[in-house]
Amino acid sequence: MDRCEPQAIGQSEQPSSAISCAGCVILALGFPAAITKLMSDSSLPHFDQPATVSFFRKPGLPFVFVRLCMYLILGEGAAYVLRLVLRSYLSRGFNQTSPQVIFLAEFLALLGALFAAFVLSHLERRGFGEYGLSLARNSAKHCLQGAAFGIAEISLVLAALAALGCYRFGSLELHGKAIVSWALVWAVVFIAVGLYEEFAFRGYVQFTLAQAIGFWPAAVALSVLFGAVHSANPGETPAGIVGVILSGLFWCFTLHRTGTLWFAIGMHASFDFGETFLYSVPDSGAIFPGHLSGATLSGPTWLTGGSAGPEASVFDFLVILSFFYIFHRLCPPITELDRQHVDRFSQTKSSVDQV
Q1: Cα–Cα–Cα angle for 339, 342, 343, rounded to 5 degrees
Q2: DSSP class of 233
Q3: 24, 59, 111, 192: which has the highest count of C-beta atoms within 10 A?
Q4: Where do the domains of the chain lie?
Q5: Per residue in 74-124, pLDDT tens?
């Protein structure tokens, strides 16, 4: 794996259910191209920028609080309107754990969050990519590295459990084309989940709150909130919430080192994919349809994670803690010299583009 570079900133359902989710996939592929252009207009985010004359750039806590309220109102309002537009589809009686419902809920919320950040980026006179979703030469590499970390995390945890006799893969519950169909469906769903949850908790809100209280105090507060939100999931446990908070802190660490959310998005999506589809175990307290096998977990709750799944296992805590060190070696801190180099590169690129 290459050294990181600083960047400019139950049982499965029938296969027919996977085919019925094709509309969701098409909707995802139809995501407005304009958003991509917005993401590419970015610079390396400095979370402790000095105060400016503009109200929308003042770092004081009262000003930040007002901007965060505006962000929440705009985002939730936009998502609410989109849900009204798609009410007829959402009222078809899908189970709450179906991929259709999960995808639409996350995707509409993502659109609302991006819309709110887009509006505020203009009010603040910032590049949209400063909120963590810039598109640059190493964005794809960061995302793929994150995906590798996510699969490695769940694989290491379940390998340890299997060695102790606590995890059994079981027999296949999907066969032939159904494996490919469900794999694609869950891949699309969890990409949407990763994009929304990472941007919602570590995008605009993290960037803005950090201006008032600092990066790490904001990261801790939002990671605790991230865990609290997951506590509403059926089957979630206190240990599972601790695991979610620890994951959130690690993803903040990757944001701090890379300047973008792409590593966290890739890792978040691939870990959920590994839990739900590949290894067929509970994900944040829920077992979803369309899983690959009839896997089983047995043994002490502190080992298996109990109803919350492997993310509440002590093995998962150990893996995430080891990832802090591994990522520290993979992506050393961005020095001031690196920042100046990136700034010069960005200015040169802008000059070339103008020509």
Answers
A1: 85
A2: S
A3: 192
A4: 15-354
A5: 999 999 998 888 776 666 666 667 888 889 889 999 999 999 999 999 999
In order, the DSSP letters of 217-232 are HHHHHHHHHHHHHHTT
Q: How far apart are CA 207 and CA 101, in angstroms?
A: 30
Distance CA 192, CA 269 (A): 8
Pick out the chain residues at pLDDT < 70.
Answer: 1-53, 88-96, 334-355
User: Does the model's pTM come out above 0.85?
Assistant: no
pLDDT of residue 96: 67
Q: Say which amino acid occupies 224.
A: V
Amino acid at 322: S
Contacts of 282 (CB under 8 A, 6+ apart): 235, 275, 297, 305, 307, 308, 309, 310
3-state helix, strand, coil in the chain (%, to 5): 70, 0, 30
* Distances 206 to 84, 132, 209, 277 between C-alpha atoms, Å: 29, 9, 5, 30
For 231-247, what is each residue's pLDDT tens digit?
888 888 999 999 999 99
